[in-house]
Amino acid sequence: HVLALGCSPAYLAENADGIRQDWPRIPLPETKEVLSASAALGRRVAALLDPLTPFIGVTTGKIEEGFKMIASLQRLDGGAANPESGDLDLTVGWGHAGKEGVTMPGKGRLVERADGAYDVYLNEVACWRNVPKAVWEYVIGGYQVIKKWLSYRERGLLGRGLTPDEARYVQEMTRRIAALISIQTLLDENFHRVTADVWPWPAQVS
Question: What would the pLDDT profile of 12-23 be if each residue is shown by its tens digit?
Answer without folding.
Answer: 999 988 888 878
